[in-house]
Specification:
This protein is an all-alpha fold. It has helices at residues 12-24, 32-44, 51-60, 62-66, 74-89, 105-115, 122-127, 137-140, 143-157, 171-184, 194-207, 211-228, 237-247, 272-283, 291-294, 303-306, 309-331. It binds zinc ion (ZN) (2 copies). Residues 258, 260, 264-265, 308, 310-311 line the site of one zinc ion. One zinc ion binds at residues 258, 260, 264-265, 308, 310-311.
Length: 338
């Protein structure tokens, strides 16, 4: 659709369609004016009657805005409007036990473009075939829900600068998990290169500085080592880069016994998506608490156990063995000195 016509006065269905186009193709070029118009409308009346509409529009377009050059001022204008709305509505009147913003964002975002016009149309919402899956319009428009979604959008644009929202992997991190999973399943997604992936994570691991980042990358590299053990490659280079990354993981200092005992270390999920998600959660500063959900059998273990140097070094050692065996099977023994 022609998004230029989607001014703030446009019917909600048109705005929703224009925002949806930006949401689903957030990495592409779009007319930023559409986003700025919503930010201006929200800033003009941050606690107003239509604050819910502009806030949800800014939420839908937040991934796109997060990729724009900071110097063009779009993100700053959007953040100012969202912060004003959070301040205005956070403690607003509310008689609800729970709100949509407290649930998983991904499901809500998938259907929001269709449901958005019904938030302003009680009859349409009541007749909506999927109404059982959606909270009623008045809960969506509740001041505390609007403030909650303003904070969710703020967190996409300026991670870690707000509070009171559920942790989540960013859209880019979720896509990274899907790309990696497509490799592990043996059917790389369009644009995903297996050799680039192995080299990239090997190099990232070799450069890792923080313990949690390193632990997350070791979990991801471990999942990749499962793939390597069963899938031939055209050249050994990517295996060598992954090996170098795994070999850079430091052995634990001091006593070999970390005190966690036999059951104290996580057991990685065997489903690729789950193992990769656990690794991504560890690596992501804002999603680590999600391990409690995505840790599989080990979900109940404290973060400290996932970060245990003995556990991480053990995973890296096992993965390195797997990669070296695969290399030898596919390309023969390495020459001395290499
Ligand atoms: Zn409420
Ligand atoms: Zn330990």
């Amino acid at each position: 659709m022609d998004s230029v016509n989607a001014t703030p006065d446009a019917p909600i269905a048109e705005l929703a369609a224009a925002w949806e186009e930006i949401r689903t193709e957030y990495y592409a070029d779009h007319d930023t004016e559409l986003v700025l118009a919503a930010a201006r409308a929200l800033a003009a009346d941050p606690g107003g009657e239509r604050a819910w509409l502009w806030t949800l529009g800014l939420l839908m377009t937040a991934d796109y805005v997060s990729l724009q050059d900071a110097s063009d001022g779009t993100a700053a204008a959007v953040l100012d409007a969202l912060r004003a709305t959070d301040r205005a509505l956070r403690a607003g009147p509310c008689g609800h036990d729970a709100h949509p913003y407290e649930d998983g964002l991904e499901f809500q975002l998938e259907g929001l473009a269709e449901y958005l016009p019904m938030l302003d149309d009680a009859a349409a919402a009541a007749a909506y075939p999927q109404r059982d899956l959606w909270d009623p319009p008045e809960v969506w428009r509740c001041p505390r829900n609007v403030a909650g979604y303003a904070r969710v959008a703020i967190d996409i644009l300026a991670p870690g600068t707000t509070d009171g929202i559920p942790a989540r992997l960013s859209t880019a991190e979720q896509e990274e998990v899907q790309d990696l999973a497509s490799v592990l399943h043996g059917f790389p997604a369009p644009g995903v290169s297996v050799t680039w992936t192995l080299s990239h994570y090997g190099k990232a691991l070799a450069c890792a500085t923080g313990d949690a980042e390193r632990a997350g990358l070791v979990v991801i590299a471990t999942a990749l080592s499962w793939y390597i053990a069963t899938s031939p490659l055209a050249s050994p280079g990517p295996l060598d880069e992954l090996s170098a990354g795994l070999a850079s993981v430091p052995a634990p200092r001091g006593r070999p016994d970390c005190g966690h005992g036999a059951a104290g270390h996580p057991v990685l999920p065997t489903v690729p998506e789950d193992a990769l998600t656990a690794g991504m959660c560890l690596k992501s500063p804002h999603a680590r608490q999600l391990l409690a959900e995505h840790g599989g059998r080990s979900a109940g273990l404290p973060l400290e156990n996932w970060l245990c140097p003995a556990f991480v070094a053990g995973l890296a050692r096992d993965a390195l063995t797997r990669v070296r065996v695969a290399r030898e099977q596919q390309f023969g023994p390495r020459r001395a000195g290499h």
